[in-house]
Structures are given as C-alpha cells and as structure tokens.
Design goal:
The longest helix is centred in the middle third of the chain and has 19 residues, at 17-35. The chain is elongated and about 60 Å long. It is mainly α and 65 residues long. The relative contact order is 0.07. The protein contains three helices and no strands.
Length: 65
C-alpha cells in the first residue's frame, strides 16, 4: 500500500506591478497617521485638516532658526 500525500498547490502567483507600490503604503500609512499631532487629527473640516497638515510638514522640514 502506498502512502497518500496531501496535494499541494505549487503554482506561482505573479504580483501586479501596482502591488509593489501598494504594499509599502499599506505598511507605512498607519504609522504616519498615528504619528500626527492630535490637533491635526481633530480638524473639523477637510480644508482645515489640509492646512494644518501642510503647516506641520513645512515646519518639520524647515524648522525656525
């Protein structure tokens, strides 16, 4: 009697080039979101959120002397 081995699917799934960009974004986006100051996250409107976010990143990139 011969042993019956489980059938294993060894097919290779090729990744679409868009996935190469999507995977790092999925990993880094929550880290970036969680690192934002509370006053930005608590913005009341999309316009104020954008304005605060832009100011925050600008001041981070170019700190006052």
């Amino acid at each position: 009697m011969t042993p019956q081995w489980p059938i294993v699917d060894v097919s290779v799934t090729l990744m679409h080039p868009a996935h190469l960009v999507l995977v790092p974004f999925i990993i880094s986006a929550p880290k970036i979101w969680n690192s934002l100051p509370p006053h930005i996250l608590q913005s009341q409107t999309l316009d104020s959120f954008r304005r605060h976010l832009k100011t925050y990143y600008f001041q981070s990139a170019y700190p006052a002397p």
